[in-house]
Write a structure and sequence with these properties.
The complex is a heterotetramer, with 2 copies of chain A and 2 copies of chain C.
Chain A lengths: L23 H12 L5 E4 L3 H11 L6 E4 L3 E2 L13 H4 L4 E2 L2 H10 L5 E4 L3 E2 L5 E2 L2 E3 L4 E4 L6 H7 L2 E5 L23 H11 L6 E5 L3 E5 L5 E6 L5 H6 L6 E8 L5 H11 L8
Parallel strand pairs in A: 1-2, 1-5, 5-10, 10-11, 13-14
Antiparallel strand pairs in A: 2-3, 3-4, 6-7, 8-9, 11-12, 12-13
Helix pairs in contact in A: 1-2, 2-8
Chain C lengths: L7 H8 L5 E4 L8 H9 L5 E4 L4 H9 L3 E6 L11 H5 L9 E4 L2 H12 L5 E3 L7 H4 L4 E4 L6 E5 L6 E9 L5 E2 L7 H7 L2 E9 L2 H5 L5 E3 L6 E4 L17 H12 L1 H13 L4 H8 L1 H6 L18
Parallel strand pairs in C: 1-2, 1-8, 2-3, 3-4, 8-10, 10-12
Antiparallel strand pairs in C: 5-7, 6-7, 8-9, 9-11
Helix pairs in contact in C: 1-2, 2-3, 5-7
Classes of the chains: A alpha/beta, C alpha/beta.
Amino acid sequence: MSEQKPVAAAEVGTGAPAAPAFSRNEMMIVAAARELAGQRVCFVGVGLPNIAVNLAKRTVSPDLELVYEAGVFGAEPARLPLSIGDPTIVTGATAVTSMLELFGYYLQRGLIDVGFLGAAQIDRFGNINTTVIGDYAHPKTRLPGSGGACEIAINARQVFVIMRQSARSFVERIDFRTSPGNLGGAENAARIRREQGWLGSGPSVVVTDLGIYHFDETGEMRLDSLHPGATLDEVRATMGWEPRVASDLATTPEPTAEELRLIREELDPEGMYTK
Amino acid sequence: MSEQKPVAAAEVGTGAPAAPAFSRNEMMIVAAARELAGQRVCFVGVGLPNIAVNLAKRTVSPDLELVYEAGVFGAEPARLPLSIGDPTIVTGATAVTSMLELFGYYLQRGLIDVGFLGAAQIDRFGNINTTVIGDYAHPKTRLPGSGGACEIAINARQVFVIMRQSARSFVERIDFRTSPGNLGGAENAARIRREQGWLGSGPSVVVTDLGIYHFDETGEMRLDSLHPGATLDEVRATMGWEPRVASDLATTPEPTAEELRLIREELDPEGMYTK
Amino acid sequence: MSSKVASMRDAVADLVRDGDTVAIEGFTHLISFAAGHEIIRQRKRDLTLARMTPDLIYDQMVAGGVARKLVFSWLGNPGVGGLNAIRRVTEGPDASLEMEEYSHFGMVARYTAGAMNLPFFPLRSYFETDLPKANPLIRPIESPYGDGTVYAVPPLRPDVTVIHAQRADARGNTQVWGLLGCQKEAAFAADRVIVVVEELVDEEVIRADPNRTIVPGIVVDAVVVEPFGAHPSYVQGHYDRDNRFYRDWDPISRDPALTQAWLDEWVHGVASRAEYAAKLGEERVTSLRPSAPAPSGVVDYGTYR
Amino acid sequence: MSSKVASMRDAVADLVRDGDTVAIEGFTHLISFAAGHEIIRQRKRDLTLARMTPDLIYDQMVAGGVARKLVFSWLGNPGVGGLNAIRRVTEGPDASLEMEEYSHFGMVARYTAGAMNLPFFPLRSYFETDLPKANPLIRPIESPYGDGTVYAVPPLRPDVTVIHAQRADARGNTQVWGLLGCQKEAAFAADRVIVVVEELVDEEVIRADPNRTIVPGIVVDAVVVEPFGAHPSYVQGHYDRDNRFYRDWDPISRDPALTQAWLDEWVHGVASRAEYAAKLGEERVTSLRPSAPAPSGVVDYGTYR
């Protein structure tokens, strides 16, 4: 396990902070990685989930089994791949299968504990849009689409979301529902999951560049921890609804020296994810 | 190709025949093998089909691709296996797949030119029973059941049947329809195949210990060739209906020396299929 | 990450419960007779036995009194004849063994639906046959694209699936070559999985060739190391099918007394697979070894840092 | 039994026709850029391009003017950004490229239904999403076992599927290791199949390890031998993904003029894959080789006579 000693204190919420010893993206990645403590099998998505999961495997969760939708179970990547389909996730893995089996026998079968998703838009119930901004037929922005996200959201036992927060991304109403979260609320979602035989229980955590959210008993996102240097005003300014805030709002512990070293030296030396 | 020189003439249809130089089972196997001339991909079943197909590959059809339902494509068995799942069909084969893929991607996909079936009961339209004699719930005789036969009958481009003829097996009405043939007749069968999107065109030949049958335009079996030593009276005595007989009824050419050598020395030295 | 290696006795005692649906799969290849015999020895009861081809193993288990019901697609001793112990309890007015019958593709499709957590699997079989009448679980389903009706089969989700394999590591990552049958599907479909292997290998052996893995350790509950555990079935590269045994079983199984005597001697009379192999004798065992190796060749995955 | 070996030029000329549905498959691994470039060079028209991840190859083919429609599940340059040539013809009021959109499992299920000659394939995705509204071919279907409704996707049956592989024999028996994607399903689903390989091998190499075969020659129409034909994608054990190329494409593809200049230089300006590799230069090619081998080990199939 990594040491938990912080390298530098960033000032919190009082005027102009001193130049922090870590970036907000680094804090987001570290916070997401820590949420994976105790998890067993994790589905790794392209982009930020990729670095967060690889960091978790090197810190809080060394026994984590990495599953890549490309068809790999038990990957031991020697480097952080740019794409999620990379030769380094294959060499030395436990099993490589067709995508029919990966999506059918692993994901839909309920063998994935945590599915990690990014999002272009998310609403208060964790419903996700990665398809279009604007009208579907004539979109303002054409996004990548579902990929495996729709089936991860439905079939992974829990869903973790990692994304930067902004007024354009945390919205009252998403333009397109690519991946179901808690639908219109926890009660409705629980009923549909039961009736449909879904094995997943939906979104469980959202980690942003500002804080960490879990979902309360109504199925709505609740801010449980604010990252060092982030303020509630910033959170409110970057959300399309009035956020619920935990009564015992915590401050996220800063990245440790070892976490930062792993990100900067091993996982992302070119700073692709962290700048 | 094998020589076509007969070893001995068995007397045909005139009083007591001289002891033939080959058995009726041998004639049946040889006749079935010859029907495979020009075929490309053949699904090999357990029992008589197994020896007939392996003989064809050594004589009239050396390029024949042998497919075993156990999951083997392009087998080159070094010996005749007792069971159709045998290590000799795997070593040196072109491809070995799961049975899901063998039945789905090969058979149901329409890649099999000839499916070979045996039968406990067959009717004039080539419908086959391999499930029970008597009532299903309390059968007089419990037979093996479908195995892959039901799907071979539906999906193979053509179906060849090989079986010994008897009044109990060639019946007016089969006790259970395990594998569809020409149903109630050619017209009905063609309509159903079209409507259901079946890729197979049903039974095309029946080879017995007495003769060779093809199916006429009404979808009914027609005796086209009588084996040496067999008589029309024998045929009639071993069928539950009045058989159609080709106006130019042929006599099946006798087994060649090479065919008999292959059966007796290479394929079935213990005489399991031929005695 | 702890080891899942267990004795057959413990694995069967812990994981197979009276009343379970048990699938010992392997299509002619890799049939775990060792597990079947242990289930008989432990006198499990009221099992539903699922297998595409019940084969000698379920004939013996039915004779051994462990079964309540069979789920299957082909009932026979391939190339030899019928399964006589099973025939005795399925023919005539006193038939006592419940039967649920499919075709091969139907059984494969059932395991696949179980492995994929699907409510049904569609296939083109059964139309214009008597099978849906014999088994009302085979049901028609209309294509939502207006192109007709096909049949569906329901998922099969065994309580326990047992497979035999050439090798696995201690965590249960399992590799097989030769016939694959429906073992992968049957394992993913099951609640609990026992893997029986010829050889326990280091994780590194598995990781050197990840495409060869058919079942990952995550679905495996116990790894039992029992060389020769598939006899009289066979293991590609290790030993041949013992066709003599398949033929010998026919007269034994025709006579109930001979059948029970055989079970007393070869199942109840031995404590383990090692004893069974020793009793069979070195000569018989050796006679089943392949006449020569047939190596696969090596492929290169490449190191990427 | 005659050889199916052909040049890429002949294979594409003979087997790809204007208006065809073409699937060049390979999930990040084994993408046949060589075939895509030849299709551009031959100025094929009105193609429906099916691929789970259109990736740079379909961005280039769309820019090259061969496409009428895309069928896909994820549209992007992984880890880098969007596919800019495709975005230009799919965003805003003048969007001209037709789109038919699924999820990854939906696309895999479509190929599988095609490979199995099924009228549909059921899956648990899509419920409570907007995807069925966006694509009316995603349709609900009720389980015949009274346990609710799932969605179905229709079969995808490409006119032509192109896959890249490590090796095949002259009859088209093809072996792959590393990521398998949905190539097997896409090949079996297709009417015609082109296999592009790094290495043509003797039939004996294939037959030594039959479990490694993903596509049998019987479904293959042409075998094209084009080493480095997957660049900038990669081939496990042969060369690495050229991530630099994926990044470089982003600024090129943002500018229509630069994009056309790139096509002129690297596609129309070279006659073959060998010329492309020579133009790329020995240093770049060498830099993509694995740093060390990672051998699979050997398994023994055994000789049985």
